[in-house]
Design a protein that fits this description.
alpha/beta; Purple Acid Phosphatase, chain A, domain 2; five-stranded mixed beta sheet
Length: 279
């Protein structure tokens, strides 16, 4: 079989999986394993500061709210018609973490140049054992194998992205110990003087972050040097917040698009044991 036919067959299978996931139907464990192995090969080649070209639409937390992710794609455009940059926290809290993270990883494998997926604080072994993803994997697959497959993959997610050398994107914020893009290590709380100094040192115009619930879907801070983007409307199905995405066009002009929750579907009967603390 020629290489072209192999590629066509691979894309065909992947397209079928994406179509299935878009219906909020999870893949089998072997399919998840194969998908994550392919994703690992792609992510290994990406940088801790992954360069991204405009136009691109920048998105914040999703937290397993699959139907709101589908609404995001409806409003922002389907991938690969729209380039996307997601800033982490795909799992936990919502009812459909498995379907959400699997879809985003599948899109990454299918269109590696069209979608960038960063690591958030919930893409970790410890937090997912407390806030829902681990339990969801047990419930949907009968064991923890899929949880382990994904948490192993999370180790390969890039930490930050840089859009056209001007917009620095990351999940949480900057640490006072970080001065340049070359020495990014761990992130701490955002501080105004740190933001201004970091932007100046690295010739940046804007830092985009996620991680934090903001009621209007986005929020400016530090004299519009930092913006928080949150893409999970009505967070945890009870907060009543709007969501937003940030579109950056070819001319590097940016526009916020706000959206409300997708219509509620029949939710699974889930007994919650997770704390109410909002990480």
């Amino acid at each position: 079989m020629s290489a072209d036919l192999v590629a066509e067959s691979t894309h065909g299978n992947l397209d079928e999986q994406i179509s299935q996931l878009m219906q909020c139907k999870p893949l089998s464990e072997p399919e998840v394993r194969g998908l994550c192995e392919k994703a690992k090969e792609i992510l290994m080649d990406e940088s801790n500061v992954q360069p991204v070209k405009s136009p691109v639409t920048i998105c914040g937390d999703i937290h397993g709210q699959f139907h709101d992710l589908a609404e995001l794609f409806r409003i922002g455009g389907k991938c690969p018609d729209t380039n996307y940059l997601f800033m982490g926290d795909y799992v936990d809290r919502g009812y459909y973490s498995v379907e959400t993270v699997t879809l985003l990883v599948a899109l990454k494998v299918r269109y590696p140049q069209r979608i960038t997926i960063l690591r958030g604080n919930h893409e970790s072994r410890q937090i997912t054992q407390v806030y829902g993803f681990y339990d969801e994997c047990l419930r949907k697959y009968g064991n923890a194998n899929v949880w382990k497959i994904f948490t192993d993959l999370f180790d390969y997610f890039p930490l930050t992205a840089l859009v056209e050398s001007e917009i620095f994107c990351l999940h949480g914020g900057l640490s006072p110990s970080v001065e340049t893009l070359d020495n990014i290590r761990n992130f701490d709380r955002v501080q105004e003087d740190i933001s201004e100094q970091f932007n100046h040192t690295n010739n940046l115009k804007l830092i985009a972050r996620a991680h934090q619930l903001v009621m209007e879907g986005y929020n400016w801070a530090h004299e519009q040097k930092v913006v928080t983007i949150f893409s999970a409307p009505n967070y945890c199905y009870r907060c009543g917040n709007m969501a937003s995405i940030l579109e950056v066009d070819d001319c590097r002009e940016h526009t916020f698009i706000q959206f409300e929750p997708a219509p509620r579907r029949g939710e699974p009967d889930v007994t919650r044991r997770t704390p109410d603390y909002f990480l």
